[in-house]
Amino acid sequence: MMRASIGIGANLGDAVQTVQAAIAAIAALPDTTLVAASSLYTSAPVDSSGDDYVNAVIQVETGFTAEALLTALQTLENQHGRERPYRNAPRTLDLDMLLYGDQEISSATLQVPHPRMHERAFVLLPLTEIAPETRIPGIGAALYLLESVSDQRIRKLS
């Protein structure tokens, strides 16, 4: 079993309901247990336009390999109507594998840790809410990175 951290976001449709449904769907994956789920947050789009996002971060224990978990997450995105018309387009559902244990993975389809997670308040704030001791491999303690994103607008919803 491996602990994985997953970022969840949506800014099209009923984003709150979509994020909550995604949490439940990930928790229901075979050989996967939900360990923790952050509060929901709203944040402005980064490097994009459109409505504010609803975001959360969860941690799961899973028997999936990193690649298999990525495939399962992409399947869930597709089930929620995810389209990729251009980079950083508004999204019905965005699921990002942030961390997979303490592994560093670089393949054609997967980068772990997620390459910009340490630059995003919508990742760091919910992540440190549920796991303040988190270390990002190759970067450092997530808690100490919060100050560097303090200029990004983010608000707790629940």
Automatic annotation (TrEMBL):
Question: Source organism's superkingdom?
Answer: Bacteria
Where does this protein have coiled-coil stretches? none
Query: Which pathway is this protein assigned to?
Result: Cofactor biosynthesis; tetrahydrofolate biosynthesis; 2-amino-4-hydroxy-6-hydroxymethyl-7,8-dihydropteridine diphosphate from 7,8-dihydroneopterin triphosphate: step 4/4
The record's annotation in Pfam families points to: HPPK
- This protein's species is Undibacterium squillarum
Give all residue intervals belonging to the 7,8-dihydro-6-hydroxymethylpterin-pyrophosphokinase domain. 87-98
Task: Report the top EC class in one word.
Answer: transferase
Role of this protein: Catalyzes the transfer of pyrophosphate from adenosine triphosphate (ATP) to 6-hydroxymethyl-7,8-dihydropterin, an enzymatic step in folate biosynthesis pathway.
Member of which family?
A: Belongs to the HPPK family.
**Underlying gene:** folK
Q: Which InterPro entries does the entry link to?
A: Hppk, Hppk_sf
UniProt keyword annotations, A-Z: ATP-binding, Folate biosynthesis, Kinase, Nucleotide-binding, Transferase
Q: Does the keyword Transferase apply?
A: yes
Gene3D superfamilies named among the record's database cross-references: 7,8-Dihydro-6-hydroxymethylpterin-pyrophosphokinase HPPK
Its protein name is 2-amino-4-hydroxy-6-hydroxymethyldihydropteridine pyrophosphokinase
The EC code for this enzyme is 2.7.6.3
